[in-house]
């Protein structure tokens, strides 16, 4: 039976759809390519729910180039499931999961939830793609967004998913409203918007930067952008309206109760200056501080610089001490604060930026940021070590960062390691002592000794790159590639700024799937199997087949269950397991292989709860429950009686039975998040009495019913479509031979509950239970050395990283081996806790046992240099929680005090050394422990430099 609106596609020939799946994929692909070739400011994109987008992608990709491989597996003895190509067309576009409930009521524009992650929660599609999808599917709501251009020297296009949200405080009524306006708008646009909204005369209006409920600057430069005005997401602005020639008072009081001056005040300068150079403010320099050492080279500080203008409350009642200054969270900027705290507590950088480094600022480097990033970072570091503030708001630095790195310009959470990589590289280029980089042709080793070739590569690197960052943060590793065909060996020596170490426990993954017998012979049973994390569904199905002792004439049909209904079937054995989230639920329907071509019957369960209203009338409230059952219909005419019989058969294991049988069945069902791969529990482990008491069902405790005792009993069944929109009583249904799937609703009334125990269909485990994962990772800590060994281990290149062999003249999947050759004074380890795939992101909270003292890497370094290979930990960037709602903090050690401190945005607190090593550690900072001879040489060099 083909029910209108079913959304179920049997064959393209019989379909009245506008396009086939492959045609839809081709059209959307062409529209995407056309949009990508014409990127420009002002282009319109639409925000689309990632959940709906994934449904559409799976629908249109079901017949792509791997289909021949799929057919090979489904036609063989491999237990992959149904051989019929059954695919589902998604329903209407549904963005309800990414917008606030009721946001579009009364004609209001729908509001996006916050925070949402692109790729996880939503995707962006060009306007033409949206129009075509809407033509095919309808739905919504529509969420258009414009493309903007960000950055100064390095322009980048991005879609403004979240406009700038400002909280306007009206001084006349002291009330607050929310303004949403593009980040690319100007102060003049802001005035126009507010005056229009409140019907005000612009001549009698002034707006203040009211960050943290304090007046910082009058927004009177109409040409300024919001970035230049340092307006942050969700911050306050203050509206004042002149009345009878007077401006309002009472806002922005100082500590004595006096109103703050209505003009910008010169900020308190850091006591540590660079040779008394001029102060640069908003592009012009004041000469009151003396002559400039280099035009525009001094640290810039806005006249209203929030990093030095005011104190903020913290957990300490006293002023901050040197190096103990917190950083205010400006809106999801904890990632930035964590990275900055680690860098500003790096001893060589502290020593460098507290001195006069103006002569090394490179404004001519096309790869740099005109020196502005180094100036902004240096000023921030100096303020944090000035012992003036308990915490400061790094708004000026955030503004500079947004100008030069638009990927960090928004207000979403970002990655502290990615920011560290950008800062180290940007600081290097801004401070590169090489003004004109020479061209150096890369040469092969040609069989030369490693020592000679490595030194040549390092000298060539230093000829183009020479800065404080290279001096203290860059090392060198040896990379060896071997061709798998001709055994050609290629050796290169490359510089590194940090080492990204994989966690060995990320290689495999435990996944739990419940197996349901489609013939109704046994109760459902969960199985947990271990598979390669980057494997395919064929690997999981093979492991699951072994675990559940699948017979050679049986198959497994895998389905994803969502909201008590089948969301999709897994028909592609080469679908990546990395795209499966831990909180998703999959079941495997076990059935004889020879039934796979028969029509499929889906049984969806629903209870009808009786509610009593004020009028004492009974209302039936339907509610879906349990997990659906899937079985196969016999050949021949399909009648209501046949469906009744098949459903009774598949429900047979749920019949309430005698105590001993029920105890055995219960023992095979319960368990936290699945069983071992054997999945067997001896029925002797549970006594009959214990089993009966554990069921705790007063209604049926003493009942012993058999199927034969209710032969005349008819189940309450109705036929429905896949979206559960329409239902037809079973007795009134008619069926066509072309129907490949029949879906029925089974309503569980007290009589059905009396005969069957529906509890066996409830509470199936998800793929992986987070609580169970946390317990495992605490007991299965791994060492930093095992992570380093995994990084240095020889392995083949990925299929997307093929190497061109100069001997074969072909791209080959070569094997790659890394070795440490030269280590820097500051060694940074990045623990790769996050994994990314096409459909999802994951984080691993495994505890890495890293040394705090005496990290000896001697055995891993191939070059036998005189330098020490022993390191001490001095800072850690931490990440807590998940990807969407996580939080970053930092630990840092003040070496002079030999004490550890915890930096959590504005809050700084003393910490013990034992508390530093946690499963949240994400980026580790080590400093080389120099030998006494090296220390004496460094001190002599410093003395000589000072006397000169």
Automatic annotation (TrEMBL):
Enzymatic reactions: Thiol-dependent hydrolysis of ester, thioester, amide, peptide and isopeptide bonds formed by the C-terminal Gly of ubiquitin (a 76-residue protein attached to proteins as an intracellular targeting signal)
Keyword Cell cycle in annotation: no
PROSITE patterns reported in the protein's UniProt record: DUSP (PS51283), USP_1 (PS00972), USP_2 (PS00973), USP_3 (PS50235)
InterPro entries reported in the protein's UniProt record: DUSP-like_sf, Papain-like_cys_pep_sf, Pept_C19_DUSP, Peptidase_C19_UCH, Ub_carboxyl-term_hydrolase, USP, USP_CS
Keywords of the record: Hydrolase, Protease, Thiol protease, Ubl conjugation pathway
Keyword Hydrolase: yes
Its EC number(s): 3.4.19.12
One annotated GO biological process: proteolysis
One family name in Pfam for this protein: UCH
Residue ranges of every copy of the USP domain listed in the record: 325-929
Coiled-coil ranges from the UniProt annotation: none
UniProt GO MF annotations: cysteine-type deubiquitinase activity
DUSP domain mapped to chain residues: 19-148
Enzyme class, broadest EC rank: hydrolase
Record-stated family: Belongs to the peptidase C19 family.
Function, as annotated: Recognizes and hydrolyzes the peptide bond at the C-terminal Gly of ubiquitin. Involved in the processing of poly-ubiquitin precursors as well as that of ubiquitinated proteins.
PANTHER family in the cross-refs: UBIQUITIN CARBOXYL-TERMINAL HYDROLASE
Protein name per UniProt: Ubiquitin carboxyl-terminal hydrolase
Organism of origin: Aristolochia fimbriata
């Amino acid at each position: 039976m083909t029910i209108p609106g079913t959304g179920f596609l049997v064959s393209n020939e019989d379909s009245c759809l506008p396009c086939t799946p492959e045609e839809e994929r081709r059209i959307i692909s062409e529209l995407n390519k056309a949009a990508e070739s014409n990127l420009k400011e002002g282009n319109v994109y639409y925000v689309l729910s990632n959940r709906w987008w994934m449904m559409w992608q799976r629908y249109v990709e079901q017949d792509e180039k791997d289909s021949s491989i799929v057919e090979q597996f489904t036609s063989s003895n491999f237990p992959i499931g149904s051989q019929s190509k059954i695919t589902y067309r998604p329903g209407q576009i549904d963005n309800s999961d990414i917008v606030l409930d009721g946001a579009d009521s009364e004609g209001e524009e729908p509001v996006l939830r916050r925070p949402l992650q692109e790729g996880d929660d939503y995707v962006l599609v060009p306007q033409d793609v949206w129009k075509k999808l809407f033509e095919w599917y309808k739905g919504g709501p529509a969420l258009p967004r414009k493309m903007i251009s960000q950055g100064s020297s390095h322009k980048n296009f991005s879609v403004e998913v979240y406009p700038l949200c400002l909280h306007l405080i009206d001084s006349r009524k002291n009330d607050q409203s929310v303004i949403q306006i593009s980040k690319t708008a100007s102060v003049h646009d802001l005035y126009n918007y507010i005056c229009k909204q409140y019907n005000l005369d612009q001549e009698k209006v002034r707006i203040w930067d009211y960050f943290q409920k304090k007046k910082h600057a009058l927004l009177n430069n109409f040409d300024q952008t919001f970035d230049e005005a340092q307006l942050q997401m969700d911050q306050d602005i203050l509206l004042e309206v002149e009345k009878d020639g007077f401006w309002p008072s009472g806002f922005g009081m100082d500590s004595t109760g006096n109103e703050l001056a209505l003009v910008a005040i010169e900020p308190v300068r850091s006591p540590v200056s660079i040779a008394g150079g001029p102060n640069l403010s908003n592009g012009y320099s004041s000469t009151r501080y003396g002559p400039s050492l280099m035009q525009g080279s001094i640290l810039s500080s806005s006249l209203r610089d929030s990093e030095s203008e005011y104190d903020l409350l913290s957990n300490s009642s006293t002023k901050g001490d040197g190096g103990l200054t917190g950083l205010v969270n400006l809106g999801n900027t904890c990632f930035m604060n964590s990275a900055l705290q680690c860098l500003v507590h790096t001893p060589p950088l502290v020593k460098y930026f507290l001195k006069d480094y103006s002569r090394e600022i490179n404004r001519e480097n096309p790869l740099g940021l005109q020196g502005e990033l180094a100036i902004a970072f240096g000023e921030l570091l100096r303020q944090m070590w000035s012992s003036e503030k308990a915490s400061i708001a790094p708004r000026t630095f955030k503004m500079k960062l947004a100008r030069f790195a638009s990927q960090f310009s928004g207000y979403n959470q970002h990655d502290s390691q990615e920011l560290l990589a950008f800062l180290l590289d940007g600081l290097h280029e801004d401070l590169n002592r090489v003004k004109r980089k020479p061209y150096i042709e890369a040469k092969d080793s040609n069989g030369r000794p490693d020592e000679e070739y490595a030194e040549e590569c390092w000298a060539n690197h230093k000829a183009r790159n020479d800065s404080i960052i290279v001096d203290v943060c860059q090392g060198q590793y040896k990379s060896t590639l071997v061709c798998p065909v001709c055994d050609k060996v290629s050796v290169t020596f490359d510089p590194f700024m940090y080492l990204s170490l994989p966690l060995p426990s990320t290689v495999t993954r435990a996944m739990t799937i419940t197996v349901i017998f489609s013939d109704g012979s046994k109760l459902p049973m969960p199985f947990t199997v271990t598979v390669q994390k980057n494997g395919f569904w064929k690997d999981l199905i093979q492991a699951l087949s072994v675990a559940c002792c699948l017979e050679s004439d049986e198959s497994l049909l895998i389905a994803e269950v969502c909201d008590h209904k089948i969301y999709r079937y897994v028909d592609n054995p080469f679908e990546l397991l990395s795209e499966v989230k831990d909180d998703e639920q999959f079941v495997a329907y076990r059935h004889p292989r020879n039934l796979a071509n028969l029509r499929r019957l889906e049984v969806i369960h629903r209870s009808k709860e009786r509610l009593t209203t004020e009028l004492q009338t009974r209302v039936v409230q339907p509610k879906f429950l349990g997990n659906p059952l899937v079985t196969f219909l016999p050949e021949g005419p399909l009648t209501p009686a046949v469906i009744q019989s098949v459903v009774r058969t598949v429900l047979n294991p749920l019949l309430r039975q005698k105590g001993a049988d029920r105890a055995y069945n219960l023992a095979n069902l319960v368990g936290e998040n699945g069983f071992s791969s054997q999945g067997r529990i001896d029925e002797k482990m549970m006594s009959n009495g214990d089993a009966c008491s554990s069921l705790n069902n007063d209604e049926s405790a003493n009942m012993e019913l058999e199927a034969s005792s209710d032969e005349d009993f008819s189940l309450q069944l109705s036929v429905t479509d896949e979206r559960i929109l329409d239902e037809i009583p079973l007795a009134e249904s008619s069926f066509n031979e072309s129907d490949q799937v029949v879906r029925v609703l089974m309503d569980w009334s007290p009589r059905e509950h009396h005969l069957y125990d529906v509890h066996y269909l409830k509470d199936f485990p998800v793929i992986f239970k987070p609580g169970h994962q946390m317990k495992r990772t605490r007991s299965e800590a791994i060492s930093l050395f095992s992570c380093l060994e995994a990084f240095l281990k020889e392995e083949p290149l990925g299929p997307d990283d093929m190497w061109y062999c100069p001997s074969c003249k072909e791209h080959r999947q070569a094997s790659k081996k890394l070795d440490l050759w030269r280590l820097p004074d500051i060694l940074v380890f990045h623990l790769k806790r996050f994994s990314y795939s096409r459909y999802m992101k994951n984080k691993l909270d495994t505890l890495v046992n890293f040394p705090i003292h005496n990290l000896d890497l001697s055995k891993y370094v191939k070059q036998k240099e005189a330098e020490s290979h022993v390191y001490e930990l001095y800072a850690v960037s931490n990440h807590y929680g998940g990807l969407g709602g996580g939080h970053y903090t930092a630990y840092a050690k003040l070496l002079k005090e030999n004490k550890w401190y915890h930096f959590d945005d504005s809050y700084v607190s003393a910490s013990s050394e034992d508390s530093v090593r946690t499963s949240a550690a994400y980026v580790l900072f080590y400093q080389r422990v120099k030998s006494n001879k090296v220390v004496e040489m460094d001190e002599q060099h410093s003395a000589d430099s000072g006397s000169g």
